[in-house]
Amino acid sequence: MIEASLVAGPRLDASRIRLVLLDSGGANLGSVQAAFARLGVEAAVTDDAQRIRAATHVILPGVGAAGPAMARLRANGLDRLIPTLTQPLMGICVGMQLLFEHSAEGDTGCLGLLPGRVERLPESPGLRVPHMGWNRLEAASPEAAAHPLMDGLDGRHAYFVHSFACHGDANALATCAHGAPFTAIAARGHVMGAQCHPERSAATGARLLANFLSL
C-alpha cells in the first residue's frame, strides 16, 4: 500500500472517505480502483443513485469513445443524476471529456457541467494522433497553480492516451501541448477533470488522486 505521505501529498483519513466510481462501462475501472487502493481507499463501482448521493467523492472514469460512454450513462440514468451532485466530482480521460458540452467524437452531446467543446487533436507531419505517452503538466496561471487539486503537480509528468481534448478552456488548471495546447486538468467549483490517466501516472497520478480526496 502506498500512503499519501509517500507521494508528498496530503494526509488522508480513509475512514472518512466514501468514494464511488460511476459505472460508465470504461475499461479502466479496475486500474482506477487499484490506484485508490494504493492510497488505502476503497473505490466501489456503482450506478445506484442512493449510494452515489451518499458518497463524499465521485469519480467518472472512462476509456473508449464519447458516444458509447454517454449512451451507457443515459441507459442507467446517470446522465440525469450527475448534474445534481454537489460533492467533489472528477472525470478521468473520456470521463473528463463527458463533463463538457459537446464532443466532436461521434458528434456527441455531453453533460454540460464544464463550458466548452471537445475536438480532435490536430494532426501534422511527424505528429502522432492519438497522443500516447508522458507529457509535462504546466499550470495555466498562477491562480490555477494555487488550486488544491494542483498541489505539487506543476511541472510534473503524467501519462496520456487520447485523440480528443478541450482547447482554450477558461477553467483549465493545467495544460499540455501536443501540436497545440490542450486542457490536461480542469476545475469549476466541485466539478473537476483529468485528461491524463492518473492510474498510470506513477507518483504524479497518486498525488493527483490524493489531492482530489483531500478536497
Question: Can you give keywords for this protein?
Answer:
215 residues, alpha/beta, Rossmann fold, eight-stranded mixed beta sheet, four-stranded mixed beta sheet, 7 helices, 23% helix
Give the secondary structure arrangement, pairings included:
Layout lengths: L18 E4 L6 H9 L5 E4 L2 H6 L2 E4 L5 H10 L2 H4 L7 E4 L1 H4 L4 E2 L4 E2 L7 E4 L10 E6 L1 E2 L2 H4 L11 E6 L1 E3 L5 E7 L1 E9 L2 E4 L7 H13 L1
Parallel strand pairs: 1-2, 1-3, 3-4, 4-14, 5-7
Antiparallel strand pairs: 5-6, 7-11, 8-10, 9-12, 12-13, 13-14
Instruction: Return the domain count.
Output: 1
Strand content: 25-35%
What is the overall number of helices?
Answer: 7
CATH superfamily: Class I glutamine amidotransferase (GATase) domain
Q: And the CATH topology?
A: Rossmann fold
Give the overall pLDDT as a whole number. 93
Order of helices and strands: EHEHEHHEHEEEEEHEEEEEH
Biggest sheet, open or closed, and with what strands and sense?
8 strands, mixed
Shape: globular
The total strand number stands at 14
CATH class wording? Alpha Beta
Regions with little confidence, pLDDT below 50 for 5+ residues? 1-6
